[in-house]
Amino acid sequence: MAGSTYIKKVAIVGAGGNSGKYMTEALLKGGKHTVTAITRIDSTSELPKGVEVKKVDYSDQSSLVEALQGQDALIITMGVRAPADQQSKLIEAAADASVPWVLPNEWSPDSTNEALLRDVFPFQGMPKQRELITKLGKSSYIAVTTGFWYEWSLAISAAYGFDFANRAVTLFDDGETKMSMSTWPQVGRAVASLLSLPIQAEEQDKDRCLERFKNKQVCVASFTVSQKDMLDSVLRVTQTSLEDWTVTKEPSKERYAAGIEAMQKGDMLGFARMMYTRVFYPDDCGNYEKTKGLANDLLGLPKEDIDEATKAAIQRSKEVSWG
Question: Would the pLDDT of 183 be above 80?
C-alpha cells in the first residue's frame, strides 16, 4: 500500500498450481505476508493451508477488482492453455484496484531475448503484458525469469531428451550447450524473498529493494547446466554407467523444425520439442546467468544439489504420463 515500507498483502492466481503452490507456501512460511488465492467460482483446486480465498468470475470484471482491493502485490501464474485474455483482465483489474506491484505470468527463459520471442510463440505475449501494465500506469511490474522448471522438464523426454524408462537420451548437437533453469522450491523462495524486500532502499543496503526491479526483469536459477551435466547427475542418481544408456545425437535446428511439423499435425509433444530445443540452441539464449546475471545472492537463495532435483524428476517421470 502507498506509504508502507514492505509488502504485506499478496494475491496470487494459480496458488494450487505447479509453481504457484511453492510460491504460496514460501510466502506463508516466511510469516511476513497475508496470502490470498484468486480462484474461479467453480475451482476445486487444493490450496496450501493458511491461504485466504477470493472466488472470482472472469466474465465480471468488477468481481476481479473487488477481489484485488487492498492488495499490495498480485502474482499471476497460469498454464499455456489458459484463456488468451485472462491475464490482461487481471492486469486491468489490478490497475483499477490500485495494486502497486504485479508479477506477471513469466516464470520462463529470458522473455526479453529477441531470438526466442521470434522463434517460440508462447513467449511472445509476455512483453505485451508488461507493456499493458506500463500503459495503464497504476501498477509496476517485476518480470521474474526462472528458466524452465527442472523437475518438470527433465521428466519429459520430448523436453530435455531423457527417456528414463528405456535408459535412452538424445543430446541436442553435442549436448554441451548450457541453459539456466530452476527447481520449483527455488522459484518459491525467490518470490518470497523478492516480496520481502523493502519497497524503497534502506541506508545500509541500497541494492536490496523492490524499487531496484521496478518495471524490470529479475533473473534467478538453481543451475546453469548442459545435457551432459544432467546426464552425469542421472548416472550418479541411478547408479548406472554410460554404457547402460543409449545415447544419440540430433542437430538442434533439425529437432526444432521437426517439432514444429509435429505440432502442426496436432502432436503436443512436438510443441515441447520445438520450445525446449530452441532454448538449447548454441547461441546463449538459454544461458541468462551469462547474459544477464543472477539475483540469487541478493535474494539469499541457497545453492542446490542437482542430484536431489534429478531424483525428483525421475520419480515424476514414473508418476505422470506424457502421451
Answer: yes
